[in-house]
Amino acid sequence: MATIDMTTGTSAIPHNGIDKEYRIKNRLDFGTTNVAASDTINIVKIKANTHVKKVYTKVITPEGAVATCTIGDSADADGFDASVNLNAAAGTITQSTASDAYADGKLYTTETSIDLTPANNLSTAVIDVYVICEDLN
After folding, report:
1. Which of 67, 126, 58, 49 is nearest to 94 (CA)?
2. What is the pLDDT of the chain when averaged over all its residues?
3. Which residue among 17, 27, 63, 114 sits deepest, i.e. has the most Cβ atoms within 10 Å of its Cβ?
4. Where are the domains of the chain?
5. Which fold has domain 3-135?
6. Using CB atoms within 10 A of its CB, is residue 61 exposed (0-12), middle (13-18) or buried (19+)?
7. Angstrom distance (rounded) from CA 20 to CA 42
8. 106 class by beta-carbon count within 10 Å (0-12 exposed, 13-18 middle, 19+ buried)
9. For residue 74, how many other CB atoms are within 10 A of its CB?
10. pLDDT at 88
11. Position 107 confidence tier, pLDDT thresholds 50, 70, 90
12. pLDDT per residue over 37-47, tens digit each?
């Protein structure tokens, strides 16, 4: 069980601090970076004093076999999404549901990462992860 840092996404910056909500997007290509079941994949870095409102995933390329994952953080591996189907049809979008621990978001007072934990080995899937954040600084 390894920890793999894939936090290379892009951020939309709040305009002059007036609109403090922003989005982070990261494309995860498991064809380029293969991962094993139960690895912890750091997918985006979150600054201190940030309220993460929602996390969405969009399948770009399905895995081609049974493949699921959870999305959360070091405190709760499935806090944002308890079941993401990485073999769903291209274009499928998932998000937190009312039963997920962080359905109403989570406030981070220290720098951290949002993590993905696969239930299966991944070698083909490509997904986009979108994280909607509110800067509280």
Report:
1. 58
2. 90
3. 114
4. 3-135
5. Jelly Rolls (2.60.120)
6. middle
7. 24
8. buried
9. 13
10. 97
11. very high
12. 999 999 999 99
Strands (E), the chain: 3-5, 10-11, 21-29, 40-46, 50-61, 68-72, 81-85, 93-95, 106-108, 112-118, 126-135
d(CA 83, CA 95): 9
Name the residue with tokens 């291209």: 90
Residue where the block lists tokens 């979150």: 46
What does the CA dihedral 13, 11, 58, 76 come to, rounded to 10 degrees? -100
Half-sphere exposure of 79 (CA within 13 A, CB side): 17
What's the Cα-to-Cα distance from 86 to each of 4, 10, 33, 108, 136, rounded to whole Å?
Answer: 18, 22, 15, 27, 32
What is the residue type of 44?
A: V
Q: In the structure, what pLDDT confidence band is assigned to residue 14 with cuts at 50, 70 and 90?
A: low
